[in-house]
Amino acid sequence: MREVEGGGSPQKEGGSGHDISQFFEVFTRVSKAIHSGENTQEILERIVANIAAIFSAKGCIFWIVDQGKKSIENKISHGFSYRNLAEIDYETLMGIFAHEGGDSVFIEDAINDSRIPNLDKIGKKRVGSIQAFFFDIVRDFRGILAVYFTDRRQFDPAEGKIVRALGEQGAIALQKSLSFDERMLDTLRQMVEGFTLALEAKDEQTHGHSVRVARFARQVAGEMSLTRAQVETTYHGGLLHDIGKIGMNDHIIERLGILNRKEMDIVRQHPIIGARILQPLVFLSDIEPLVRHHHERWDGTGYPDGLKGSDIPLGARILTVCDAFETMLAGRKHFEKMKIEDAVVNLQLGAAKQFDSDIVLKLFTLLEKGQIEGCGTISPSYIQIHKRRLQESVSARSASLFI
Ligand SMILES: [Fe+2]
Ligand SMILES: [Fe+2]
Predict the structure, then answer these.
(1) Which residue range forms the structural domain that includes residue 97?
(2) How far is the CA of 210 from the centre of ligand 1 (A)?
């Protein structure tokens, strides 16, 4: 047996042949780390490294999967330096370890087992036996902890209990951090909404603008295979995108649209001021770039930094489209509110100039399905026409690149 952290005097458990005092040492340290709120990733790294060491295993991997989203959310591995099982995708992982009812799966002979695909790609040749254990975490999150041996080897019941106990600790650490994240998110949400109300109380014209932009943006982001956290960040970015106007002279805000050059320059500062307001708040750091860049344009002619195309953060590109869409529908002092059909035409015409075409397309798809709340209804066939025009202009542009 290899040395593990903590050391301790050897005491053998019947049948397992392992130094059980070392296991308790590790277990106690991990428990303390969980209760003192240490970094979850580090706790999981410690667990997989110690399981591999205690059992002289080739390697150990802890996957955290979201069964609702069918995705691998995190993976902590120890003992694998080559391209291997640590790199497989969700479907393959579940194919290998799909289990009915039991709390573990044993693959005695990995090389000849049909559940493990593509020998060379996953380094299967170097693996003898694999044993995997399953853990419930919270909601749709599950943990899969797999231990690999170069020879043929199965845990006896006592060893299985040790691995399970350590794996459970990983699940507890994750449960704690995920619940904590949720509480943090709630607090954050309340705070951000408070900020937004403070901002929009200043101007009756824009009242509710940020909330509507945020809601549109959350729906569009939800269509774009982003993580839950990224969708939330985009939503919060929507709520706060114009927070930089909070410090602006009321006189200027009231005259938006009929400003002179000097006043316009002041208004153009609001993304920078907004980002500056958020900068000291570490937990809003993901939102800051969205606020700073929500007036950039796809063709690089926007402000404040003149970023172009995919250099503009995705969340900011989503906000740009939703901001324009909401503003057109709501109207301002200097222009009448538009019919949704006209707003759609303007978005289509602005694609690849002001807007990211993919995001406009996503919004159109949601409108076509009637899934954007709070913007009125539009005929699906009207949307289909403009979707087609948008797609045609995108393919015409990409064809011209090869002429
Ligand atoms: Fe803005
Ligand atoms: Fe805005």
Answers:
(1) 20-178
(2) 9
